[in-house]
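[retry 2/3] Peptidase C51 domain-containing protein: previous attempt timed out, resubmitting with same input.
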Amino acid sequence: MVLIGDDYPSKWKNLPINGAVDSWGMYTRQCTSFVANRLSVVNKFNISRPPSNWNANVWGQNAQSMGYKVDKNPSVGSVAWWNAGFHVAWVAEVKNGQVLIEEYNNPAGSGRYNNRWINSNNVDGYIHFKDLPTTGNSNYYEVNPGSVMLKKADGLYGANDVDFKNGAVLGTFAAGTKFFIQGIKKSSAGIPRLVTGSGHLLTANKSLVEQCDLAFPNYFNVNPVQVELQTEDGLYAATDRDFKNGLVGNVKYKKGTPFYITGLTYNSTGYPRLITSSGHLLSSNKAVVKVYSGSMFTNYFATNPVKVELKTTDGLYSRNDVDFKNGLVNNKTYNVGTPFYIVGMTQSSSGHPRLITSSGHLLSSNKAVVKVYSGAMFTNYFATNPVKVELKTTDGLYSRDDVDFKNGLINNKTYNVGTPFYIVGMTQSSSGHPRLITSSGHLLSSNKAVVKVYSGMLFNNYYPTNPGRVRLKVADGVYAREDVDFKNGCMDNKTYDVGTSFIIIGMTQSSTGIPRLITNNGYLLSANKSIVEAY
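[retry 2/3] Peptidase C51 domain-containing protein: success.
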């Protein structure tokens, strides 16, 4: 048959052992949960209740009471069962009196995947719920070939796209490209798929791939999770898989700098690249990086926790101040319990993880400073930039520094329901409530009771953000700064010729949300793309 590998769902794999109950009533990361999931996914058989007790030691008795055969004859897809040993495993292959089993939580307490060969007699029985056909498909690799080389150009598929329905997500790769294979999955029709070191899927069809020597032995072929530099090096953009465009920001990190690795990808010729927690790429060459065994990441959030709150008074740092050398932004501190929404990660020059907030500022990821936030605030607010919103209720704008909305609406002006606004960024109140920054630089509530996503076409026809410099496509004039609705006519009834240029220093909007350009002399100019063009 086939050694499938660790196909246990990540939603359970990443929990603590016994951290939840699975779909069949088994505790997660136990041997019983792994086998129940494998039976469901591969054998298309689901454990039922009653019986209510499915501890590993009673699987044999339960199966017999339900009418299923339990004997000493192993077959592919059967369940190896130990009574006194309190263990069950899934049978992957039977050969010459030996049985290849796949299992979880052996040794007990590990909560991890394992596979091993055992003597066929070293069990209390084999349970035959719904065994698999033993006739293999000679056109496919059904046992992990270790490494393969493409015989024809092909691509890689998503980790869960076992039926190859969604098209290649990485590639195409040329014939001759090699890939390290860490396991095998099966399609819904039972067709083997190769699981690459990155977790992407590759065809197992022998007309497209052939077994080869170890792919890239001098590189990390599977995720090492934590690495440190063995030589000075830097990071590359997420899309620069061939490392052609130089280091991000031309920044180099010193030997010994650690990085937390969240996955693997490949360059165009199949060389593995490490994906860091910031989303940037790092070399996987073992001459450049080695496994990091230090304790830094124990004390920091190494991956995005999404929502955090302060455990101690602290503040935010500017986006480029990764070493926290320049002090808090505006010297502002936030109280214990203030929540922040996290949109990404970066790192200091020494590798310390930093959290990127929805406002674009940096926050410490030290677990002594922040912890995961479990409150409901972000349920009721847009926590990240929705880009375009419209009012659900009459409301207005606040000045840029009035994050707590204490000073009232600007000019006491309110806008009607349905008025759209273009959003260019986010900030937060002193208590952590998200605020929207409009293209005019003013603040707007992000409460979902006040605004909703705008799906209209207005901003397609207007410049919603500052184009910097424009010129007229048709003769037109400028308007007084307060005449946002263009009701009072052009200043001095003057029009400017086609091609006349203007420097734009800011944006505002009409009472109905139509963008207006603010020129460097303080007048207003149309932002309509049929009237002006950026150049």
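[retry 2/3] Peptidase C51 domain-containing protein: The mean pLDDT is 95.
[retry 2/3] clearing retry counter.
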